[in-house]
Design brief:
Radius of gyration of chain A: 30 Å
Number of strands of chain A: 8
Helix content of chain A: 55-70%
Number of domains of chain A: 2
Largest sheet of chain A: 6 strands, mixed
Largest interface: A-B, 75 and 76 residues
Oligomer: homodimer
Chain lengths: 577, 577
């Protein structure tokens, strides 16, 4: 049943599951579980939700993705950028800490899941192409800065607020006198320790005799050490009573069955944020999935990925979670730790379920500052301004899109930023294709080749204009061709023949067809004939479905050489007329 | 001073103005003036404004366009579609017949003029390319139907309302018992007469001995006869007292100096409608201008046209008018009547100013039903469903855009309709370019030519995949190439070399570059080398500004033939590695 296993990839890998795959998957699951516990709590904090929501958001979604997703090693759950976008979107409709906030986060996950499913079932994954690479890179860099800035308040022990750099900064400045020194001490040491873990722990473990892979994995579990140490410190010295914000009571429970709110008002308020979260999440996830799959020559099906992520988000909505997607670092750890199949995800879900049942009392004394430190260290690796340099060197158009995205995200928040990025790149794209490269060509003497008159020494005839169009013709540029030809006709009174050379025209749409018809008519009114040459097969097929070829005042030549020979002198012209 | 005359085309033609041009211009001006008086009154009625606004909107704008515009024969003033859009936009913010309504129309003209000027000065005319030909055709057809429907109430002598087909229809049905039979008699006979004028007057004039041009022009002045006859009938039988709606008191005055409202609330409410009106008006106008200019091999500069239309609309805002643009029928009449230069427009403005001063008392008794008849007969010629058939035959994508535009314009009004058309055509465009044509190619035996393996009998090698990309690579399709190559790598375990053939790749943006880099890395991880062949010069220049060529695991071949020879057998491969 190829069609069923297309929609249920589990039928494919599940049938061939064996002991060796089980061993790899189980080991990976243990390591990923240890890594995910602090990460899940931290991203829940970032999203403005109670800490257990982070663990819940990691359980059902992993299972659902394991059934429907096509990547063998992608690890799904809360990630930094999507959590930030969740906080921004839900913060618009409810106050953090209220039941309405939690319910709105469920609705956001539901909407986002429904959109991803719909995009997948309708095979509309191409919509993600709206987001160009530079826009995503700029958006993620700016988001990393926003996230790190938003976590500073937890490190300082004050109330944070705001979704733009200015709001966050103003909030910090306004409360500077309420800084809690003990929290600062904990937060700064945790941050310093975690930075050292990133750079220094792995070499240390290597020197202690661990193999490179194990040292790498050991270094990834570093955050757990910071959590243990700071939790113990708070418990031992009763720092909670001295103003250190702690996680507090966390229910000891499996993910609860929850129902998102379907109020039409809430759905319409969250529609656009959910769409942006879906697309950003999908783009992030598929790029990780493809990178990992390539290493083992496995196949990722983008439309099926939409279905897998859609199912994962739907399940988050019904199990006390919030929007999720495939995470980069956790997927890499999963892959490096030897995960072979999505069963590794299922085992991770089991591990997290056990943690939710038995470990939650232990995190009562966990200081929020430690979670903030975990987030800051994780997201600063997302910040990478080199995209600005790359874009500047490669093309000014891309530079415009990436700098608009970074600036607007920092100044006006994630939704404005990513929307501006999308709009800018579409505008830039339309602008570029609206002025396609065209070259007046002439014959290279003694050959059958035709080249740009501006770049080569070529022969031309005053009464013939041969114009090579180096772009497909469609509505963004149809009018430009009209304008250019009107200009040529007005400038050259001796002109009797125009040849449009189409070797690089891959497509013609109805707008361009109508432009060609208008050009034909206008040139005819001006006493000039219009010819075509080197038209590609599919384009010719399309033109035959119109009246253009019947009405064309000139001819269609197989080659530009043939056109030049036939139109060689006015005398010949009479013959062909 | 070429730079100054670029922005002031009047300096160019004004310097060479002579008696022959004067004669042509003056004759044309008389004819156009006679035609414009009823048209201006009618379009003011359609826009929901007092009749004199139509005449005012024809005076200053014509003068300003004469100074700044590049077309020699374009006649600027109120036109049907823009008047309908004005009624829809202003109707949202004020009630018809109030001072606020008139003021909002001025603001709309001001905003629209400012936008056109800005687009022209910033050389952003390409934004009009958002509107594809089929979308415009569909929009104009649907607008024609809406306009005709909206005028039915005047023919029936009842109060009309609504901006969608359903609202208009419901309004008519609700007031059926208030129909005024005398108005119906007048309206129906005027409509019938005007339809006859369109088809029958010209042959009659020809039979009466007029030349074809004069007969044509005579037929165009037909509406004046209808106006004279029905006005006389109302006056003679005092039909105004018997319930026939008449134009009534019209001030005898030159265009007044008016100031549009600049309330921020009004400006923000009218922003989107003004943008749509600007773009629709510009697209309509430039297409008429180019068609007429081509007949005399004159040049139209699109960016300067934006400035000309912008100045015209600004002047309408300060002289009691409403949004204007270049009209099709009046421009054709102007051209056919022998206009040589924009001075014809200036003389027309003079004629209309005289009419505003001296003729307005005569139109006191003009029935509104006659104006409605003028509008109905004029706009029904805009209705042309053949675009649906053309689009269906030519491409389903264009058909989707045109049918969405027609349906949504009729059901939800002009703004929703045109926006939906723009969005649909951009989506369709992105969808099409997101899945570019690519062909796996092989060598035609015994030649150096490479063709699609699906269409030709060609030779391939199992360890080499040669893929010809028939489209520029940019963000809408960058990911598709990644997906396709991931799929090939997963399907063909024997693959060692991939050659991307780029003869039709006209452009590569940063997204596509990063996709190529990702493809290179992923193929490398899978033990496959990536090569390029037949890269165009400008694309190669661009790639040299990146690290791709340094990191490429394979080579860049000048021709596919060279690539095939070098990669011919695995043994050769080792040699080049």
């Amino acid at each position: 049943m190829p069609s069923l296993s297309r929609y249920l990839p589990i039928l494919d890998w599940g049938r061939r599951y064996d002991r060796s795959a089980f061993t790899g998957d189980a080991v990976a699951a243990v390591i990923v579980t240890i890594m995910l516990i602090p990460q899940s709590l931290a991203y829940a904090l970032l999203a403005g939700l109670p800490p257990e929501a982070g663990i819940y958001a990691s359980i059902a979604p992993i299972l659902l993705y394991a059934i429907f997703g096509t990547s063998r090693t992608l690890a799904v759950g809360p990630v930094a950028v999507v959590s930030l976008m969740t906080a921004a979107a839900v913060g618009e409709v409810a106050a953090s800490g209220t039941a309405g906030y939690v319910a709105a986060a469920l609705t956001l996950a539901f909407l986002s899941g429904a959109m991803l499913l719909a995009l997948g079932l309708l095979r509309l994954g191409f919509l993600a192409n709206f987001l160009s690479h530079p826009v995503i890179a700029g958006f993620i860099t700016a988001s990393g800065i926003l996230i790190a800035a938003s976590q500073l308040s937890h490190i300082l022990g004050i109330e944070g607020e705001g979704h733009t750099l200015i709001e966050i900064g103003a909030g910090l400045v306004a409360q500077l006198d309420e800084i809690n020194p003990i929290t600062v001490a904990l937060g700064v040491s945790a941050t310093a320790f975690l930075f050292w873990v990133r750079g220094g722990l792995k070499p240390l473990l290597r020197r202690m005799g661990l193999g490179p892979r194990m040292a790498d994995i050991g270094a990834k579990t570093g955050p757990v050490l910071a959590i243990l140490a700071t939790t113990l410190a708070v418990w031992a010295f009763d720092l909670g009573a001295r103003g250190v914000a702690i996680v507090g009571e966390v229910p000891q429970s499996l993910p609860p069955l929850t129902l998102p709110s379907f109020s039409p008002e809430l759905l319409s308020q969250l529609f656009v944020p959910a769409l942006l979260i879906s697309i950003i999440g999908f783009v992030e996830s598929i790029s990780v999935a493809q990178t990992l799959a390539a290493k083992k020559r496995q196949r990722i099906d983008p439309d099926q990925e939409l279905i897998g992520l859609g199912a994962a988000n739907m399940s988050a909505a019904f199990s006390g979670g919030f929007p999720v997607t495939g995470g980069f670092s956790r997927s890499v750890v999963n892959y490096d730790a030897g995960a072979e199949t999505p069963a590794a995800g299922a085992f991770t879900a089991l591990g997290l379920a056990l943690a939710a049942l038995f470990l939650t009392p232990l995190i009562h004394y966990l200081p929020k500052a430690t979670l903030a430190a975990t987030i800051i260290v994780a997201v600063l690796s997302l910040v990478d301004f080199s995209i600005l340099k790359r874009a500047w060197r490669f093309s000014r158009a891309d530079f415009a899109a990436v700098s608009a995205t970074i600036l607007l995200t920092l100044l006006f928040g994630v939704e404005t930023g990513v929307t501006a990025g999308v709009v800018t790149s579409i505008l830039v794209h339309l602008y570029k294709t609206s002025r396609p490269h065209m070259a007046v060509v002439g014959r290279v003497p003694g050959t059958e080749h035709f080249r740009n008159v501006l770049r080569h020494e070529v022969e031309t005839q005053p009464h013939v204009l041969s114009l090579r169009v180096d772009e497909s013709l469609y509505f963004p540029n149809a009018r430009y061709l009209e304008d250019r030809l009107s200009a040529y006709a007005a400038e050259k009174p001796e002109l009797t023949d125009v040849v449009l050379m189409f070797p690089a025209v891959n497509e013609i749409d109805l707008s361009a067809l109508e432009s060609l018809e208008a050009i034909n008519t206008r040139l005819k009114d001006a006493g000039i004939r219009l010819h075509l040459s080197e038209v590609k097969g599919p384009v010719m097929d399309r033109l035959k479905r119109s009246h253009l070829l019947e009405e064309l005042t000139g001819e269609v030549f197989l080659s530009q050489h043939e056109a030049a020979c036939r139109l060689g002198s006015p005398a010949n012209l009479e013959g062909t007329a």
